[in-house]
Amino acid sequence: MEIGSQSRWRGLLHPLNLAGLLTWCAVAFTLSYGDAALQPWRWACALLFLAAFLVATALPQASWQRATLLLVEAVAALALVRLAHYSGVAPALLVMLAAQVAATWPLRVALLAVAALNLGMYFVLRGVNAHAGVVVLIFAGFQAFAMLTTHYARSAEQARDRLALVNADLLATRALLAESSRDAERLRLARDLHDVAGHKLTALRLQLRALAGRADAPAGLALCEQLSAELLGDIRAVVQSLRDSGELDIATALHALAAPLPRPRLQLRLDDNVQLRDTGLAEALLRCVQEALTNSARHGDAQVLHVALRQHDGRLRLDMHDDGRLRGELREGNGLTGMRERVAEHGGRLQLRRGASGALHIQAEFAA
Fold it and tell me: Taking every annotated instance into account, which residue ranges of this chain make up the domain Signal transduction histidine kinase subgroup 3 dimerisation and phosphoacceptor (predicted)?
């Protein structure tokens, strides 16, 4: 089983889902009562509801398959309400369904759907229960509680995800700024060494050379002139080393970007020959990976995002794909359009395609 599938089935351990399973068990406990001839039908409806519930829990929220299964749950629950009307417990399944509806659609749509469910429950109970309206009102209160609990839990999770994205953006930007500051400091030190120490050592060497050429030059003056020449060469080597080491640590910035996110996990492969000195290009790379992380989490339900960065023939190549599955057609929204624009600003091109596993595969090439 793929990692993404394992994660979806682990969603059954969510507290709200566990509460739903406990509710189903409570309803199932009452199915043996009542007309024995209808007992197989009652169990059939209950098991159909449970199967649809379990599969719907493992599916992405915004999918037509999940919506279809919720409809199956609604039909099975209403049928069970009619067949087990004597116990008064079967409508609890509609409370489970109301929570699922609130987790699937916006609150307004969920309210309309649950109102239709309660209207259906009233019609199936009207002929067999003299207090059908009271039963509907009682369970409508439970449904409202379940819906609001789920709605606010979902809102809190979305707010947490948005906060994680902002935090990741800040951490990655801070890492880039820190690296840029270190680069600027290295450049300043290189200039100071070259302009101050190098200049004075050159003057000192010239003076020593002039003194060494005199007839009354003391012993050891030639050695001092040689040592000053070697010291000047050492300083020039240090200056060149400081200038050459001004590469941005893009790996640290990328890991800082992905660290706060609950998923997907970033798996980075960075070739040894990658050299990045342009802060603007580093930021463009950072934003491309950020958008890929967001897409993988929101649209692909991915657990791992694979990112490879290579440099070849003066071009910087960024390759990204995840272990999720893209839902629906591949369309460029604002995020992917912004990614394409960033790549174009740095003389590159962007390619998008759906991989063999159904995941989005992004390839970007920059002029290094």
Answer: 185-245
Q: Which of 244, 260, 288 is the last residue of a domain?
A: 244
- Are 190 and 235 within 8 A, CB to CB? no
Tell me, what's the pLDDT at 219?
62
pLDDT of residue 6: 45
Encoding tokens for residue 67? Answer: 């919506």
Residue with tokens 């998008």: 352
Dist. CA 25–CA 92, nearest whole Å = 11
Task: Express each pLDDT in 283-316 by its tens digit.
Answer: 788 888 888 887 777 765 678 888 888 887 778 8
For residue 264, the 8-state DSSP code is: P
Cβ atoms of 73 and 56 within 8 Å: the answer is: yes
Range name among 9-23, 43-57, 119-133, 243-257 with the lowest pLDDT average: 243-257
- 177 belongs to a structural domain: no
8 and 49 housed in the same domain: yes
Q: Is residue 178 part of a domain?
A: no
Q: Compute the distance between CA of residue 177 and CA of residue 174 in angstroms, rounded to an integer.
A: 5
Whether residue 146 sits in one domain with residue 41:
yes
Q: In this model, does residue 146 exceed pLDDT 50? A: yes
316-349: pLDDT as tens digits: 889 988 887 776 666 777 778 888 888 888 888 8
d(CA 73, CA 94) in angstroms, rounded, equals: 9
How far is residue 243's CA from residue 254's CA, in Å, rounded to a whole number?
24
Task: Confirm whether pTM is higher than 0.85.
Answer: no
Separation in Å, CA 291 to CA 68, 176, 267, 345, 366: 31, 17, 15, 17, 17
For the chain, the straight-line distance linking the first and the last C-alpha, in angstroms and rounded, comes to 40
For residue 157, how far is the Cα from the chain centroid? 13
Q: Which of 200, 96, 76 is nearest to 145 (CA)?
A: 96
Q: CA-CA distance, 101 to 66, in Å (whole number)?
A: 10
- Domain co-membership, 265 together with 343: yes
